[in-house]
Amino acid sequence: MTFSGTPAPAWRSSISRTSALGVPKTWMLDHDTDAYYKIAHAFVDRQPSGNLTRDNVLDNITAYWLTGTGASAARSYWEAYGPDAPAAGGQPLPPPQIPVGFTTFPGEIWRTPRSWAEKAYPNLTYFNEVDKGGHFAAWEEPELFSEELRAAFASVR
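^ that's the sequence the OP posted. Answer follows.
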């Protein structure tokens, strides 16, 4: 596992390989610094970062904590990147045949260029680069996120 071109320490990779419950732990260790900054900013400076406020963050954490769904929410990381992932060590998955919409947000871990999205999704019907939002785009900028969803799939409504 790498992040920003730096290989993760062996112990970190072994945590995520040993069980699906290791994934939330690894996610917390490897998550992008921008996400930490936005969450911390809402607490330390008591200023929203995007639309993330202290109450938004607490509501989200509380919902996962009280319902015990943090690990299951991180399951997609395990399924996509764990040793038993469909493409792990094998052939890449076939491209999806359904229409695909793709929005790239400036605060994401990386900005996906259109050429990459077109290569990964031959049936790309919508691509847009927006000027705000990041890894938590639906949470940070819910209005923009929903506008992008509507625009992406307007042709199939």
